[in-house]
Amino acid sequence: MRHDPAGAAVVIMLRSLKMHGMSQAASDLMEQASPAFDAAVPILSQLLKAETAEREVRSVAYQIKAARFPVYKDLTGFDFSASDVNEALVRHLHRSEFTEKLRTLFSLADQERVKLTLQRL
Length: 121
Hints:
It is a single chain. Helices cover 74% and strands 0% of the residues. It is mainly α. It folds into 2 domains: 5-67, no CATH class; 81-120. Helix 1 runs antiparallel to helix 2 (20-31) and helix 1 (5-16) runs parallel beside helix 3. The chain starts with a helix and ends with a helix.
């Protein structure tokens, strides 16, 4: 029996992916010093890395779906013709121009409040 770090890495990856039967078969092939297994180790390693990455992506996608996070939406994909919504009003509100007027109004109100407070002192 010889020690092959690449083959051992394949066995470890198989175990981490819970592929115990394949892990045992790979260990047996390593012990037998199978030349076919030695030639396949780089390919197996790449496949197992791809499988690990794919499982991580699926896991994250599942977790996001299970958390029921809202899906990002914007106005570019909205079909106004299929809705009773006033498109001009929605686009006006989307630009948030009205908030600047409110900000100015509140700023003036704050200035007046400061003046009144200073006059009382």
